[in-house]
Specification:
Radius of gyration: 18 Å
CATH superfamily: NAD(P)-binding Rossmann-like Domain
Strand order of the largest sheet: 3-2-1-4-5-6-7
Distance between the termini: 40 Å
CATH class: Alpha Beta
Shape: globular
Largest sheet: 7 strands, parallel
């Protein structure tokens, strides 16, 4: 008896509209491109121009629309999502990727650095998820998926990144809380915990030969991650294949947490 062919439609985002924050560069750009390659239409949100993201998606035959917005303006974050929904149509998925990092010894970290990171990395995540869920739940029968970008520092302490670590622990907690509240209401909420990825946030680490070598020595895969590694995992969590996943935190870290 021959094995049945896999149902690849379970991994397709054809006909889906996905909003991705922080789509201008790094992990967000990787997610946006992966979503487009899976057939989804991408609405990218970023505080700077997203021309490169749009060009790469267009070259792959995908669809992309850019929304310029700074998520540090948390008071307007929910209204921004509502505006996108009203002006261009309902959303099927939300990827809360945008994040910032401030590096300093804990005794030197300023209150402003704490607040800035927590606002973008955690408060905006909750407010966007809240607005998305309100719109989904207002339409009987509609389903939605939220993917939050956590971190391996959702499980570990790290060094010199107090506000970032606190925010990413919070992202994991909020992911689980929202999953518990919304799983029976047609909304999947899950998280991806990236390891050390080649992005601007890790540029300082990669530029330090000793620090980079020590990081690579711990990664079983023997390399830094790439944005597309996270993008492909996000496609899975947005696609029908993950319909029974709620409150999961998928580590995409080259084996870092297993070490």
């Amino acid at each position: 008896m021959s094995r049945a062919e896999p149902d690849l439609s379970a991994f397709s985002l054809a006909g889906k509209r996905i909003l991705v924050t922080g789509a201008n560069t790094g992990i967000g750009q990787g997610i946006a491109i992966s979503v487009a390659r899976a057939g989804g239409s991408v609405i990218g949100v970023g505080r700077s121009a997203m021309d490169e993201t749009g060009e790469r998606i267009a070259a792959a035959g995908g669809r992309f629309a850019a929304v310029r917005f700074d998520l540090s303006d948390t008071a307007s974050a929910g209204a921004m999502l509502d505006r996108v929904w009203d002006e261009s149509g309902p959303l099927d998925g939300l990827v809360n990727n945008a994040g910032i990092i401030r590096r300093a010894d804990a005794v030197e970290l300023t209150e402003a650095d704490w607040d800035d990171v927590m606002d973008v990395n955690l408060k905006a995540v909750f407010l966007l998820s809240q607005s998305f869920a309100r719109r989904v739940l207002a339409e009987p029968g509609r389903r939605g998926k939220i993917v939050n970008i956590a971190s391996v520092l959702s499980f570990q302490g790290g060094i010199r990144v107090a506000s970032y670590t606190a925010s990413k622990h919070g992202v994991l907690g909020v992911t689980r809380l929202l999953a518990c509240e919304w799983a029976q209401k047609g909304i999947n909420v899950n998280a991806i915990a990236p390891g050390y990825i080649e992005t601007s946030n890790t540029e300082a680490l990669r530029a330090d030969p000793d620090r980079s070598a020590s990081i690579l020595a711990r990664i079983p895969a023997g390399r830094w991650g790439r944005p597309e590694d996270i993008g492909d995992a996000a496609v899975f969590l947005l696609a029908p294949a993950s319909d029974y996943m709620h409150g999961a935190a998928v580590a995409v870290d080259g084996g870092w947490l297993a070490r």
